[in-house]
Amino acid sequence: MSVKDLSLRKKLLVTFVAVILAGGLASLLVGSRLVRETLIGQAQNKVKHDLSAARMVFDEKLNDIRDLVGLTAARESLRDAVPPGRIDILYQYLNRVRNDYGLDILNLTDASGRILVRTRRPEAPPEDMSSDALVKRALQGGGHSGVQIISRRELLNEGEDLAARAYMDILPTRMAAAREETVETSGMMLRAAAAIRDKDGRILGALYGGILINRNYEIVDRVKELVYKGERYKGVEIGTATIFQKDLRISTNVRNRNGERAVGTRVSRQVREAVLVGGQSWIDRAFVVNDWYITAYEPLRNPEGSIIGILYVGLLEKPYLDTAARVMSAFVLVAGLCVLFLLLVLFVITGRITKPLQKIAAATEEIARGDLSHRVEVESRDEIGRLADSFNRMTDNLKKANESLLEWTRTLENRVEERTRELQEAQAGLVQSEKLASLGKLAAGIAHEINNPLGGILIYSHLTLEDTPQDSPAYENLKKIVKETTRCRNIVRGLLEFARPKDPEMTLTAIPDLIEKTLAILERQAIFQNIVLRKEFSPLPRLVVDSSQLQQVFMNIIINAAEAMEGHGTLTIRASADEEAGWLSVEFIDTGHGIKPEDRERLFDPFFTTKEVGKGTGLGLAISYSIIKKHSGKILVRNEPGGGAVFTVLLPLNSLRAAE
């Protein structure tokens, strides 16, 4: 059965249901994205603060070592024991300090940087530390602390246990970059050094000490305890912290599938490129060993400024995704109940509209059979009631005419037939008028149903904006939502007034700024993530245009270009002015599949579209053409020789340029 065979009531119901479902689906998609982005944005803000807290814990530990080494170096007993070379006294004192304060190493050098006392392995051969950055600064009269990579040779001189702690098998890790090494033998250490001076201020040597981070979980567990307080979600710890030596986890509370600390695993390729290679902080979702986390990474630098590792904190992403899913489930349930209620209301309303029409249709059948005494009961005074009254009066007239015709002779048969034809034409006109009235109501109903969800979005966006602090990262995004929702409402109003276009609301506008605003709205959409945007703007005069309508034109053309490239390619936007020709030109050049010759002539026709059914209305370019025409401009279309389409918007300079 085709649509033409359906009853009027079924057509109305099918149309309204389609509009309700389309609006509901659009609301669900927008709401789902908004809820997800809001929750993930909050999580990213939190993890950013968590990274600051982790850095504070890291620096606090480093400062503790610096203060301990500095205070020890300033002790008078240590200073007095250095010149006589009383190694035994120096060893006993420094070894006690190392053990009491949990240092992994604490060594003393002479003024040339050669080790005098090694507290862990006094029997190890002396070593020249003058090239070490921290010791070198201490011997020059300063004191400094930092994180350093310690070679296996130096670790073995301090003790095989330290070398064993630093030794790690590099485990295969999903999404990590390729790496030739299979083991890591060097270690990362928090170290500090301070000068030892005599009473006259002369430098006698340097004292340096430190803690090996490899397999030392004090810092990362302190971060987890301080920031996340052991919180868990479905048995999994929500917050994690890690210290990386280059891209290798050497101290972490991230767990592998066996529940063990995931030391020896590596960071993902994407994070490695951004942080280790690019030297940038990273705040985004990332895959960490077994799960997706909302993460924050920042580089760790040695005293020379080279990046040697990464500090990381992360929040499990699943709790936020589950929260978004619960919110959307509740929203779907409420929306479903609303749809059912609207369907019930529509069923009742369409019944009241079509029932009188059915009576009139039945009456016409009776009259067609010759029963001119049949009457239609008038139950209302609206258009349908007036139609029924007119129908009854028409029937009376027909009856009188029929009685008169029976009295006439057969010589008047032609006149009777002519009169009958006139009556039939009048009846057809009445039926046609009723159809037009019904279509008018249908258009009004569709406009009402579209504006309702848009109005709801606008109201709740305004309320959310009022509750959002102006310094919040979401404030500007909410302002854009309010602005763009208002513009959507104006577009719907413009579609209804397509046959009765209104005059543009002209303001002084900079065309490059208008293009930038349009791109700022669109470039965050998923389809633009893999599209390269190139902007080539010459110096341009400002024009008096309707900025909202012109932004709608640019947005339609840019979205069409992105869809033609299927989300991959290059979009070039070139704006220039030709004083001699009197035009300001804006070109949109894409690398898509171009426009078929047979489609080019119909491209700006209303309701013509090359997209699949349901993918477009065919109004975007038609409305754009109408807007540019009202600006006394032109839209030109051509294909590039190498592939792709070029849309050119021409705006007149002489008639629209502002007087200055």
Description:
- Strand 1 and strand 2 form a beta hairpin.
- About 3% of the residues have low confidence.
- The radius of gyration is 40 Å and the shape is elongated.
- Among the domains are: 279 residues, LuxQ periplasmic domain, N-terminal subdomain (Beta-Lactamase), CATH 3.30.450; 154 residues, Histidine kinase-like ATPase, C-terminal domain (Heat Shock Protein 90).
- It is an alpha+beta fold.
- It has a five-stranded antiparallel sheet, sandwiched between helices.
- 50% of the residues lie in helices and 20% in strands.
- The protein is built from 16 helices and 21 strands.
- Helix 1 crosses helix 7.
Spatial order of the strands forming the largest sheet: 2-1-7-6-3
By CATH, the superfamily of the domain at 43-321 comes out as: LuxQ periplasmic domain, N-terminal subdomain
Radius of gyration: 40 Å
Examine the secondary-structure arrangement and name the CATH architecture of the domain at 43-321: 2-Layer Sandwich
Write the CATH fold name of the domain at 43-321.
Answer: Beta-Lactamase
Poorly predicted runs are 428-444
How far apart the termini lie comes to 66 Å
Q: Give the number of helices.
A: 16
Quaternary status: single chain
Shape: elongated
The average pLDDT value, as a whole number, equals 82
For the report, how would you describe the main beta sheet?
Answer: 5 strands, antiparallel
CATH class of the domain at 43-321: Alpha Beta
Number of strands: 21
Beta-strand percentage?
15-25%
